[in-house]
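Human: Here is a favour to ask of a fellow structure person. Comparing notes only helps if you start from a blank page. Give me a protein, with the fold worked out from its sequence. Please set it down just below, with no commentary around it:

Assistant:
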Amino acid sequence: MSVFSLSYTITEKDAGRLLRDYLREKQISKNALIEIKHYGGNLFVNEKEVTVRYELKSGDYVRVLFPKESPSEGLHPVDIPLDIQYEDDYVLVLNKPPLLASIPSREHRGGTVANALMHYYQTKGYEATIHIVTRLDRDTSGLMLIAKHKHAHHLFALQQRDHGIKRKYEAISHGLLETSSGCINAPIGRKETSIIEREVREDGQRAVTQYDVLGRYEGYSHVLLELETGRTHQIRVHMAYIGHPLAGDTLYGGEKLDIKRQALHSCELTFFHPIEKKEYRFHSELPYDMRTVLEKQKH
């Protein structure tokens, strides 16, 4: 779908309200209404064009036509296979392999998830900007949530703000954690001597990570982690902070002995579909390289 639209049937309780106020209650932002007015969108009631000052009547059929999106400028399509776990007109869930960046950067200008999505959209005839809701580090594998329209991205952003999108990760950390479960509550901020590294610091942003030990191996712990907050490098920083950096994570004190990237995998993603109004949950098994580390340490 190249044109994104939403529709509603007005009930008696909303009769007499202005369309503008009704749509704002439906979480269509003020900016979105401005874009609809000036950039090619439209508002229809009973298939007749109206303005936001239309007074609603019971039984009215409202259709909101959002402006057509243009593909992201400067983002080139690249034919990279995508492991799509779920897709509908509004959302797409990917299972990202390790060593694939989410978006272009100075180090990785092409060959990213965003480039792959651009190619995929083109093959489907879908003209859209890339809207990544849950970004992953290049080394981190697993589930990513993609919105297929700006308004859907806006609704997911509201969910993120209210901690409505739940993510769980599996990791392999150095050393044997003494407790089977715990909570790491330590603020995280940018390290003053680096533009990349983060660290636990008193003036940082609130950061909370819950963990459960799934297994203990020779020199490693297999850990399930859930984020209460979503700070940059949060799991990596928190695990290093408690003395158990992730295997392969040389930036935060780990060693590349049995794996050549940080041993971190986004294994579970739960969200409330903002259009279909129901909860979705997805699970992704550990990738081969992390399974290999655990199998090797069994012997």
User: Anything to note?
Assistant: The helical segments are 19-25, 30-38, 113-123, 150-161, 234-241, 288-297.
